Amino acid sequence: MRVSASFCAFCIVFLLVTIVSCKSTKPATSSTDPQEMAIKKKYAGMMGVKENEITNIALYKFIDNWYGAPYKSAGKSKAGVDCSGFVSILCAQVFQKTVSGPSTAIFQSCNVISEKNLQEGDLVFFKINSDKISHVGVYLKNRRFVHASTHKGVMINSLDEAYYSKYFFKAGRIK
User: Fold this and answer.
1) What own/partner pairs with CB < 8 Å and gap ≥ 24 does 129-135 have?
2) Could you confirm whether 91 is annotated as catalytic?
3) How do residues 106-116 score in pLDDT, each as one tens digit?
4) Which of 30, 123, 141, 152 is most buried (most C-beta within 10 Å)?
């Protein structure tokens, strides 16, 4: 069986185009966006995880944008925000989920989950010096959560810190 020269030329061109296109395709997991790389590095360090574990860039960009915003009771802006206002805005903008009202009302819009089953985006609730829920935050990973603290504003803390461990009540997943 004899193969024509034009068929061989076609095969060579096809092979070269395939090789070139494969080499120019970047893996979906790598990013060269300097802002994204900086976000991954910053929050991986803060949370004690590897940079490749910071996958929800929209979440961490949102946190970075709000980090340090001061606390203000009933506040809902970067000029001043309380825990439930911050959680409501974060859930709407990052996860497209609606929760509203004080932390007790937000708790009612969740299914209770065990602490060991916490996933990024779940909510963590606290009873601080009270017999009712008085504080809420958004779980991140590695037992860290983001919230609006009354003393330092929007920040990340660990569920293992003595203060938060003492007052932790339950975890919830938005229905």
Assistant:
1) 129/167, 132/104, 133/103, 133/104, 133/107, 133/169, 134/103, 135/83, 135/103, 135/167
2) no
3) 999 999 999 99
4) 123
Strand partners, 157: 145
Question: CA–CA separation, 98 vs 112, rounded Å?
Answer: 17
How does pLDDT run across 55-68, given as a tens digit for each residue?
Answer: 999 999 999 999 99
Residue 161 token pair? 């810190």
Q: Which of 83, 91, 110, 151 is catalytic?
A: 83
The first and second tokens of residue 132, run together, are 């009712």
The reply to whether 135 belongs to the active site is: yes
Distance of alpha carbon 154 from its chain centroid, rounded?
A: 14
Cα–Cα distance, 168 to 133 (Å, whole number):
9
Options 22, 91, 135, 151, the catalytic residue: 135
Catalytic-labelled residue, pool 22, 110, 147, 151: 147
